[in-house]
Amino acid sequence: MKTALHVVLIGFFLIAAGCVNGDKYINARGVLDNSITYLESDTAEQKHPLSRSADLPGKGPTLQVPQPALVDENSTVEIHIAKENLGNKTMNQELAQQSKELLKQKQDIADALNLLAKVVAARQKTLQAYREKNFQQFDPAKDESVKLENNLLDNLTAIWPRGTKEYAQLSGAYDRPKFEKLQAFLSKQIAGIDEANGVIEKELDSHSRALTLEAFLSSRDHEPVAVHLDGYDTVQEQSLVRIDRYGLDLSEAEQKKLDAHVQKNQEMAAALEHLRTGEATLNQTVQQVQAMLTPQISSLVDEGERLQARLDPTKLTERGNETQRLFDAFIALIRQQNATLPDGRNRQLIDERDALLGRLIPESRAFGQAVSDCERTAASFKQDWQNATPATVTGLIRQSVATVKSLQALRGKLPEAISDVDAKARETIEGYLHDISAPERSSLLPSDEANALRKNLQDYYADFQDAAKLVENVAAALSSLQVNPVAEITASAASFQVPIDNIKDTLFNLEATPRQQGDTITVKATLKEADDTIVDTAVAKFAVGRLGHYAELSPAVVLIKPEQLRGGDDGFRFAPVLSWMHHWFPRPENSSGTAAIFRAVDPALGIHSAFTNFRPDGGSDAVQIGLGLTLSFWRNRLQFGAGYNLMAKTRSDGQIYYFVGSDLIGLLQTVGIVKQ
Amino acid sequence: MIITDRSDLDSSLNDSTATVFILLGVVDSKAGAVHSLMESENWDDWELHYLVPDAKALLSPAELRNWFDGKTSGCYAVLGGKDIPKRVAAKGPVSDLLGPDEKPDYLVILKIMLKGEML
To answer: Of A16, A393, A545, A606, which one has the fewest beta carbons inside 10 Å?
Structure first.
């Protein structure tokens, strides 16, 4: 009864967890949030709304903004912008209305001018017929001219109705039969409208707004990368790279990563197997495994110790004395070659030497102190991670965040490191000889004394360079221990402000980005007034994942057991296994019960090859290869399998085997213990 | 033209090309003011206007009834069309020809003249 209750509770928990689809939303905060709609277009060109609105997707104002929404790594995200919402509505509508009315009036007057020309022509025809007493022509000509003039009067009095100031002016200007004054009056009115409209347009310009749209890809291991948004930046579009859904068409980097992953699994399985069989002690195995987990930190500690030895205060005093001795030898050579060197210049050479040493030694001390701090930090972390238990991992990760910040601050305080050590040393020596004539300088520079001094200075600068790198590398190594650090987004110089009238919808194609699963794409929109005052900002985030069917190669360390093993140990033993696992991860909008279960346990089914050695007594050490099926849960973290040992001749030789295991290295990478 | 006999009026009324604008009233009246403005403006040769100070003496009772609804002053009528006798294109009190400032409105007068011409 109790067991059944536990099963029901676990099932309920899994389904509840699966209903959480991974998407997060925040309520829209302003006009920009309301006006931007995101839509995912998958590889089958099916559209999936990423913004939430009350109306049909993409039709009404956005009410909830993704923070982040899960998108497929091979999809395209469309950004639709309702630009009509982004203007300074009250001000612009009023001005735009005024402008519209003026332009309509201008059009009406222009039409009246055209009509006037027709009236004049028709009247001339009428008058001519009348003068010639040609009444056959006169009657239709008069009908036409009267009709046109009647229309003209109607149009003019519609533009300037009775009682208006312009009506009186119009009446005064209506000069039959020539209509010259009327034409001038109408042209003047058009010019006046153009002038008034110019003022309004200027006013509208001063209230015009512009939109900046930027997108960045943030990844755990790299600096944020700008993502191209057509029409909004000059970021170069990358070539399209579709990630193979079958997990077999690997890039060179992915292949290397997989090889390393397989290698680590093999080493770990071997180490654990040695422990199991008693061929190694627990301590030896733990050290072996931990050394594998923290190789980068270990090398940084070694580098720190090397630099610390070079930059410790006692050593620096000795190095300072040596530099002074080399300087003195060089000064003696300068004096020897310049017998007529004035006394003032002689003193200056000494002063400049002292000034240089006065800078070099304190800078060396600053770098030395930084190296010492870093080495202590790295060593302490190495120690902490080696002694880590599941209970202390979270605390260590949190601690690493604070330490990285302090290391970054330390790097900021250090003098600027030298990028080209050789050039800097050469430049220092040449600067020292600035008062010496060119021919003498060219004979001094290749001298043994100059070379020895240059080499000595190079050593300082190289140490500064190494120390600065060490601080950065330790900070980077500790950063990689953090879970999903979100990089700060800086404005891209490549983006530009797009006036509201020119705003168009845009998109970013994930295939054109160096994305990896777990990366985040952030889209930042900024609406500004003409004077650069920020009106509103909006940020939306998208998490890169795999949706639908996909397959991947999954190396794992497993406990494998032959069904029967005559004359040998038929218990569990450690072995590396490589499985090709097929997953189906439901889209976030799929709210079915099946989807919830798949989301919660992320099951996968695949085939594997196992590398083992079911060794009967007296058997060989040759590796045996088995093939079979693997069933996994939680993204390959827990794996079960059964297979057929190709090297075994009979069932009692371990032909059939079972295993249970884990993608241990992947698990450790996820919690940040092993660098990707 | 201020008319005291019918000769010019009759001639105009028998001219198939003419449009005749008749105002009833003395010179020092609103009708006289309208007439004065019309005198100062340019009209085509077939657009004719008359001020009739003594309507009873000059117009027949039928003309007064048909053209001016029996009134003898302070009103106007525009007669037009190719057929003789001409038809009434517009008629009404002289006040219709004034602006809000009580002064004759040239564009209104012109518009009414054109009505007569359109017959």
So the answer is: A16
Q: How far is CA A455 from CA A324, A343, A580, in A?
A: 13, 29, 56
**Residue A567, phi then psi, degrees to nearest 5:** 70, 25
pLDDT tens per residue across span A464-484: 888 888 887 777 766 654 433
Average pLDDT over residues A167-173: 93
Rounded Cα–Cα distance for residues A122 and B41 (Å) = 20
Buried b (16+ CB within 10 A) or exposed e, B10-45: eebbeeebbbbbbbbbeeebbbbbbbebbeebebbe
Would the pLDDT of A18 be above 50? no
pLDDT category at A565 given cuts 50, 70, 90 is confident
Average pLDDT over chain A, rounded to an integer:
81
Q: Give per-residue pLDDT as tens, A343-392.
A: 677 777 788 888 888 888 888 888 888 888 877 777 777 777 666 554 55
Flag the least confident range among A240-249, A497-506, A510-519. Answer: A240-249
Res A487: pLDDT: 37
Residue to mutate among A123, A151, A176, A182, with most B CBs inside 10 A, is A176
Pairing type for strands A69-72 and A534-545 reads: parallel
Q: What is the DSSP letter of B104?
A: B
Query: Domain spans of chain B?
Result: 7-117
Q: Average pLDDT, whole number, for chain B?
A: 94
- Letter for the amino acid at A80? H
Given a contact cutoff of 8 angstroms between Cβ atoms, the answer to whether A612 and A623 are in contact is yes
At A347, the amino acid letter reads R
Q: How confident is the model at residue A332 (pLDDT cuts 50, 70, 90)?
A: confident
When scoring B107, B108, B109 by the number of chain A Cβ atoms within 10 A, the one with the most, hence best to mutate, is: B107
Contact B111 A153 (CB under 8 A): yes
Interface test with B, best of A127, A135, A146, A180 (most B CBs within 10 A): A146
B7-117 sits in which CATH class? alpha beta
Cβ neighbours for A56, distance < 8 A, ≥ 6 positions apart: none
A147 touches chain B (CB under 8 A): yes
Averaged pLDDT, A78-86: 87
The first and second tokens of residue A204, run together, are 């509208």
How close is the nearest chain B Cα to the Cα of A141, in Å?
Answer: 12
- Which residue from A335, A327, A329, A332 is spatially nearest to A355, judged by alpha carbons? A327
Asked whether the beta carbons of residue A139 and residue B82 sit closer than 8 angstroms, the reply is yes
Residues A673 and A397: their CA atoms lie apart, in Å, by: 9
* Edge-to-edge order in the sheet of strand A506-509: A47-49, A36-41, A76-81, A506-509
Q: Give A576 or A473, the one with higher predicted confidence.
A: A576
Distance CA A669, CA A676 (A): 6
What's A534-590 look like in SS3?
EEEEEEEEEEEECCEEEEEEEEEEEEEEECCCCCECCCCEEEEEEEEEEEEECCCCC
- A179/chain B closest Cα distance in angstroms: 11
